[in-house]
Write a structure and sequence with these properties.
It is built from two helices and five strands; from the N terminus they run ααβββββ. It has one domain. A hairpin with a 6-residue loop joins β3 and β4. Strands 1, 2, 3, 4 and 5 form a five-stranded mixed sheet that branches. It is globular. It has 87 residues and is an alpha+beta fold.
Length: 87
């Protein structure tokens, strides 16, 4: 489970730093129970982000049953996709 509060804290971290692999690596260290993926927004078509911010969007990932998919359910979330939005 990834709570709404955790998602907000992670978004605050992303806002405060440059979005890059090093920052994502730091998030992995800070939140070892959450799987983080970093990609570009256009790699995720036809899905609505859980959190939209300037320069990035956050999506929740459900990893149950050994098959990853995006979810809008905090209870099932085990990972976060950080999708960079370019102008």
């Amino acid at each position: 489970m990834i709570s709404s509060e955790q998602l907000q804290r992670i978004a605050a971290t992303v806002r405060a730093r440059d979005l890059n692999e090093a920052m994502v690596s730091d998030l992995r260290t800070e939140y070892p129970d959450i799987h983080f993926t970093y990609c570009m927004e256009d790699d995720i078509p036809n899905h609505e982000p859980m959190l939209e911010a300037e320069g990035f969007n956050l999506y929740l990932v459900d990893g149950r049953d050994h098959c990853l998919c995006l979810t809008r359910n905090h209870e099932y979330a085990s990972g976060i996709v950080i999708a960079e939005v370019l102008d």
